[in-house]
């Protein structure tokens, strides 16, 4: 079981200039929605963006991380993107859920 902050730090190894939001989908420390916003994604296809992140994260899959929902986008795309996360195990076939707002400290 890992914390959202650990996942965020690992993602930043792949995309250091990114704004990263991590949601522990089941509060179990192994299923995460990760929203990554970076200017460096401009001109890249979605799969290329995900491969950058997975190059760092693959060593942690399937243990301690079981599932990652990666949403990699440019700042312009983030402005118009929806407010949902995908839970790959929600309801047996996957389900879209509203993203949980991060608590401001």
Residues in helix, %: 25-40%
What's the overall average pLDDT, rounded? 86
Q: What fraction of the residues are assigned to beta strands by DSSP?
A: 25-35%
Largest sheet, strands/sense/barrel: 3 strands, mixed
Number of strands: 5
Protein architecture, described:
- The protein is of the alpha+beta class and 105 residues long.
- The chain has 3 helices and 5 strands.
- The chain has a single domain, classed as GMP Synthetase, Chain A, domain 3.
- The protein has a 3-stranded mixed sheet. A two-stranded antiparallel sheet has the order 4-5.
- α1 crosses α2 (46-57).
- It is globular.
Helices and strands, with pairings:
Layout lengths: L3 H11 L4 E6 L6 E7 L8 H12 L9 E7 L1 H6 L3 E4 L7 E4 L7
Parallel strand pairs: 2-3
Antiparallel strand pairs: 1-2, 4-5
Task: Spell out the key features of this protein.
105 residues, alpha+beta, GMP Synthetase, Chain A, domain 3, 3-stranded mixed sheet, 28% helix, 27% strand
In short:
By secondary structure, this protein is α+β, with helices and mostly antiparallel strands. It has one domain: GMP Synthetase, Chain A, domain 3 (2-Layer Sandwich).
């Amino acid at each position: 079981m890992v914390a959202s902050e650990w996942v965020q730090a690992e993602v930043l190894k792949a995309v250091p200039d990114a704004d990263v939001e991590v949601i522990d989908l089941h509060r179990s420390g192994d299923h995460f929605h990760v929203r990554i916003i970076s200017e460096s994604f401009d001109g890249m296809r979605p799969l290329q963006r995900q491969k950058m992140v997975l190059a760092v994260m693959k060593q942690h899959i399937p243990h301690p991380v079981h599932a990652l929902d990666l949403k990699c986008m440019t700042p312009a795309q983030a402005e118009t993107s929806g407010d949902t996360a995908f839970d790959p195990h929600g309801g047996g076939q996957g389900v879209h859920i509203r993203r949980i707002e991060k608590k401001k400290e």
